[in-house]
Amino acid sequence: MTSRVLLDLRPLTQSPAFARLWVGSTLGGLGGQLTLTAVMLHMYHLTGSTFAVSMIAVAGLLPLIAAGLYGGMLADWFDRRAVALVSASATWLSTALLAVLAWTGAVDAAWLYALSIVNAAANSIVSATKMAITPRLVGAALIPAAAALNGITVGLMVMVGPALGGLLVALFGYPVTYTLDVILMLSLFLGLWTLPRLRPEGAAVRPGLSALADGWRFLRRAPNIRLQFVLDIVAMTFGNPLALFPAIGAVVLGGGEITTGLLVAANAVGAFASSLFSGRISSYRRHGRGIELAIRAFGIATTAFGLVLVAAAFLPDDGAGPRVGLIALAMLCLAATGAADNISSIYRQTMLQQAVPDAIRGRLQGVFIVVVTGGPRLGALYAGGLATLAAAAPGGGTWLPPLLGGMLVIAITTALVRRAPRFRAYDAAAPVL
User: Fold this and answer.
1) Residue 38: which H helix or E strand, with range?
2) 72, part of any domain
3) N or C: which end of the chain has fewer CB within 10 A?
4) Distance CA 296, CA 303 (A)
5) What mean pLDDT is reported for the chain?
6) Do 286 and 379 touch, CB atoms closer than 8 A?
7) Where, subcellularly, is it found (predicted)?
């Protein structure tokens, strides 16, 4: 019974290459979360503006899209190990420069924007390439288990990283926080360096417009893959109020940087727990139905988070310090969103990696990364823009984006899936694009 419920560890025990890559990705991702949290807090410290914080994500959207799409083409033409190593080097160098600037006191808003863009673009190539590599390392049968292990990675790095990032910034400042990321990311190079050469299987297509067009033609013939992309964009655009967390911590709930870190970490606690007990999740074959139910649950939890913020905005505050009870309720809602999003991600990754041929997997993984990382950036624009328009309302209007957004996620998901019976009927035992 335990083996059916708990996380399947066979990808780690049966594939040493995957195990090394997984450990390196986990430690490197932890460092990346330290920097992400520190950059958000740094921008808010410099500008005092929630909109400026949200624009960190928005500014990198177009470069991220371009890098994700082109990186996917590179992964379908060159040795995928080499592509991942080069792009990881760019990420490391941008973080190292940020640390140097912080130590010398030369950081301003422009540097934060510029280096965040470089980091996001290079990371999109690393992520797309690693995901295209995974099926070759573990085999088709263990793809769901590998996806659940990646959920553990995300859960660990986001659960520990933001809370630790907020604590490090509060106690030691921004230079120490950025420097720790520079050190932790070195482990990713070990995982990538020890991989074998991994050239794409099948007919390779030289990077360029023809390769991009070939990928889009494939996507037009794959309605189930298309719909999972659309559903994730909907969820991340309307249900991801991350850009509001510094203001929520500073103004609405109290506790400042520590509360901001705890709110981000709560989401990861849910993701971690759902991966830890993912035995039955990984064995469920109706992936389309699983995605639908998970995203609906995500919308419900996001709406509940908005209601907690409504209570914080409109109920009397004695001003005695952080509002511990409301912080706990907010964290519970965010943990539920993390669990639901992770379950959706397990099914989406598995569907994509099992059904798509290796020769085009890099390009489709590039689109996947654009969706996964681009959606939250649209979400930052939605949340920051709507909160700015509602700034005169109690609580600075921070409750409005998650409250409205959660309801939109539920309504749009229900409407889209209702029109796609093939998606609901998708069976992993007989993948249909």
Assistant:
1) helix 16-47
2) yes
3) N
4) 11
5) 85
6) no
7) Cell inner membrane
Those residues whose C-beta lies under 8 Å from the C-beta of residue 319, and which sit 6 or more positions away, are none
Nearest to 230 by CA among 418, 425, 412: 412
CATH number of the domain that residue 275 is part of:
1.20.1250.20
List, for residues 179-233, the tens digit of each pLDDT value: 999 999 898 888 898 888 888 776 666 776 777 777 778 878 888 888 998 999 9
2 in any annotated domain: no
Considering only residues 397 and 429, tell me which one the structure prediction assigns the higher pLDDT. 397
219: which DSSP letter? Answer: H
Is 9 a member of any domain?
no
How much is the pLDDT for 204? Answer: 66
Provide DSSP, 183-229: HHTHHHHHHHHTSPP-PPSS----SSHHHHHHHHHHHHT-HHHHHHH
The answer to whether position 4 is within a domain reads: no
pLDDT, residue 119, reads: 87
State residue 392's pLDDT score.
76
Q: What is the pLDDT of residues 262-288, one digit of tens each?
A: 887 788 888 888 888 887 787 788 888
Answer whether 400's CB lies under 8 Å from 262's CB: no
**Which stretches within 221-255 are classed as H helix?**
223-238, 245-247
pLDDT computed for residue 2 by the predictor: 44
Q: How many domains does the chain have?
A: 1
pLDDT recorded at residue 331: 93
Range of the domain at 343: 14-193+207-424
Residue 355 exposure: Cα atoms within 13 Å on the Cβ side: 26
Give me the pLDDT at residue 203, please.
66
Residues in the chain: 433
Q: How far apart are CA 424 and CA 415, in angstroms?
A: 13
Q: Which two tokens stand for residue 314?
A: 């409109």
Q: CB–CB of 402/417 below 8 Å?
A: no
